[in-house]
From TrEMBL:
Coiled coil: none annotated. Keywords: Cytoplasm, Decarboxylase, Lyase, Porphyrin biosynthesis. Homodimer. This is Uroporphyrinogen decarboxylase. Pfam families: URO-D. It comes from Kitasatospora setae (strain ATCC 33774 / DSM 43861 / JCM 3304 / KCC A-0304 / NBRC 14216 / KM-6054) (Streptomyces setae). The record marks 86 as: Transition state stabilizer. HAMAP family: URO_D. Catalyzes the decarboxylation of four acetate groups of uroporphyrinogen-III to yield coproporphyrinogen-III. The keyword Glycoprotein does not apply.
Amino acid sequence: TPAAQSGQRPRGAAYDSVFLRAARNEPVPHTPVWFMRQAGRSLPEYLKVREGIPMLDSCMRPDLVKEITLQPVRRHKVDAAIFFSDIVVPLKAVGIDVEIKAGVGPVIADPIRTEADLQRLRPLEPDDMPYITEAVGLLVAELGATPLIGFAGAPFTLASYLVEGGPSKSYENTKAMMYGAPELWAGLVDRLAQITSAFLKIQIEAGASAVQLFDSWAGALAPDEYRRSVLPASTKVFDAVAPYGVPRIHFGVNTGELLGLMGQAGADIVGVDWRVPLDEAANRVGPGKGLQGNLDPAVLYAPTHVVETKAREVLHAAQALGGSHHIFNLGHGVMPSMDPDALTRLVAFVHEASAR
Ligand code: CP3
């Protein structure tokens, strides 16, 4: 589009929100906070609207996507909405036979293991996901000054599902391809970089004002292997969306040793799980980038005063960044059994304790 080509986007109603100001490293009245997986299984109102509707069907119904995305914003007063969808939705859009099994995760009917399999993974075209464009449009209109974060799965994490055929602990088939068939692997992550870039562009063009790339399982890799086999594809994704000028977040779990490289891929903000304190993460990521995180999600199961002490420690460590440039989050997603009220209280606490 002309806007993307000129590097300019119209400034949406959320442009001056606390979340987007912090993401741009501008002064903020308090630290913004949102949660990964804030929409979904921990909320009774979610379980109610999802009753009898398969996960991936719900992602293709703009009315439902809008309602589910808004539920945690209404309830918790978080500083940003995360678009309700899933990392495998664009794979389904290009014809991959995938479903999400409750309590398991994405399951792929015919895993990709050979060059012939790879040919089934066609590019994602801008008009392949009209339901996403419609849902984002409805949401942005309703959210007003609250920003909407778009997202996608990173090439490695998507590849792990496609090659294993489902969730994995050791990624043996994925790594067998990465180590043993490097050209096939490069072709796979290159195709995934295209699909992921196109999915993010669809969300940004429809009005999402920040994006997060989820490389949730990249922590399975040693830094050298990440640099060689994953970094080029993820860099392509960040480069593809750079012209829009929206903040780009890069997140993974168990990625303490990869934080510097994940920043190098082109992120403006690097997500940190709870294993590395934010002041140390700042050293690893280097100057000029923001950090997001990093309270251990399991802390939410402890009494309120403990949650608040631990949250204060995160805010304190973030001061290594000079105040702004920190987005408060959990180190990974909200768990289904969490008490939603504990999350609501945590949002209020972060706002209060970080007020300046
Ligand atoms: O609030 C939000 O973050 C909502 C949007 C969202 C979902 N999935 C909804 C969802 C996002 C950003 C994701 C990303 C996603 N999906 C990731 C990366 C994030 C992370 O946690 O690291 C991954 C690895 C997936 C793949 C996936 N989809 C898994 C592992 C599961 C859980 C399966 C289970 O039941 O244990 C899903 C399903 C899923 N995606 C649910 C939701 C709300 C649960 C669906 C349900 O209600 O049954």
